[in-house]
Amino acid sequence: MCGIIGYTGPRKALPLLLQGLHLLEYRGYDSAGIALATEGSLRVFKKEGKLENLEAVLPASSAAKSGIGHTRWATHGVVSDKNAHPHLGSKGRVAVAHNGILDNWAEIRKELESEGVEFTSETDSEVIAQLVERELETRKPTEAVIAALKRISGTYGIAVAFADKPGLIIGARNGSPLAIGIGDGEAFLASDPSAFASHTRKAVFLQDGDIAVLQAKSWEIRNLRGELSDREAETLPARTAEGDKGIHPDFFLKETFEQPQAVARALGNGGRLVKDLGTAKLGGLDMSPRDIQGIREIVFVAMGTALHAALIGARIVEAWARIPSRAEDASELRSANPIVNKDTLYVAVSQSGETADTLAAVREIQMKGGRTIGIVNGVGSTLARLCGSGIYVHAGPEHSVAATKSWSAQIVCSALLALAVGRSRYLSLGDGRRVVEELEALPGKIEQALALKSRVDDLARRWSRSTSTLFLGRGVLYPAALEGALKLKEISYVHAEGFAGGALKHGPLALVSPEVPTFALLADGETFDRTLSNMSEVRARKGPVVAVTNRDDPRLADAADEVLVVPPSLEVLAPVLESIPLQLYARAVASELGRDVDRPRNLAKSVTTE
Ligand code: M6R
Q1: Which of 303, 383, 414, 488 for mutating ligand 1's site (highest number of atoms within 8 Å of CB)?
Q2: Could you tell me if the CB of 477 is within 6 A of ligand 1?
Q3: Which candidate, 3, 334, 501, 592, has a CA 20 to 30 Å from the CA of 298?
Q4: Using 50, 70 and 90 to split pLDDT, how confident is the model at 239?
């Protein structure tokens, strides 16, 4: 987590750094800060809380032509002004912004304190500033940074600014993403290139062990031995015009309403579907039909919403391709010393492509010789690069911390994978063509599901003060229930739980009361009647029930207080449609309760630390 921005060039640095911080705020918003370098001094401004707080203490203008900025998601040290980055060395000669976690910071701090260095924060990061400053006594800036980095272990992306060399910014990466942007007589450094993409599309993505030395008109990359590394700049894809909220009050609602377009893009606007063969064409997979036939198992790895999408993906693979498939929590898989089979295809699913746990799981699998592909939204992200092949989700930039459009597009991409693999094995031409038709129809059906908004808003007015909310579903709708609960708790802070309908009587039924609404997800198919029974069981205990269904069955009126009907679809695609009212409900409850919908407390969009 945490976002870093740096600038050096002929322009005033302050507005550029601030703009970068706004674009990086999704990475954390516990505090923010800026260090401006002018001849002989570093001026640091930092403030707890969201960027507005920092803006209130910044000077109206500054002549500084270089500087660094940071937006924090706290790990070591409470959320406070003094723990905000950038951190100054005690002599004020160096400022450092850090993203990552240091392992040996406590012992280094003790050592420096014994030498008389005075620390001003509780963070692990401050040791980097103090170490660099100590090394500067005897070394030039680049050597001082290298010497300091050789002392530390842990993960870092850092930006360093120097009082005595105001045009110089040094960056370094080990485990936390960092890219440099090369402009015309100016250079940028950022955790995510979107922070400078409106100024330059020429970028170099740092690799672990890289030290980037930036001046306005020059840049170079060295390794930890100080040797120059050869690196080519690449051109970033053209930016999409999705950076503002448009008519919507928040990004969450905007992105919820963008799902028809996001899903259409995930389908390649039809280009990924081959109608006459009833299959999917996925150029990025980089697998021959023979490779595909050799797959004996598909294991998805992901976290959070992406994990819920992956759980659905695994069920679709089993349904269409008849290959054993499962989805694993990436953080658990990584630490479980996984048995990696060469005939297994591992699919990492991620919106950002920067989630530390997912990256660590992929590295573990690759280290054991496993084949990995990505289903990734972040073009050029660390995960996309690490996997090298896969399916880009193309949902477009997602700004709200809570995932919406990436979720539906990830399910669709998993379905495309299942279709391609299925057709090369057991799925018939007729069934493949039916799937293609259903996928093509999905954007229009999502549009219809979005029309439920005003009814959902009424429900939120009725139940926003509930102490808890339950979500239940069976089969593919079980992960959709988990996602419904995650969305609600994430943005409204109302306690919510999702569980499988079959589990109801094994414990969760005790939670049912007149104050606790239950959302029951049903789809036309084998599990419909059993979920209907679950609803009766809840109602018999006076629990209010909302049925979300793709089949308008007359029995629902007796078993539910409210029935929200989405268009009919294949059962395995019902989670995409039935999640729409759940996303709208979470957003409506959050807004009823006055929450910051796009930036929920304690969270960040990309979880880049394990
Ligand atoms: O970027 P990723 O898809 O890898 O992120 C995974 C989770 O951190 C993410 O889905 C998180 O759970 C969302 N905030 C949920 O809305």
Answers
A1: 303
A2: no
A3: 501
A4: low
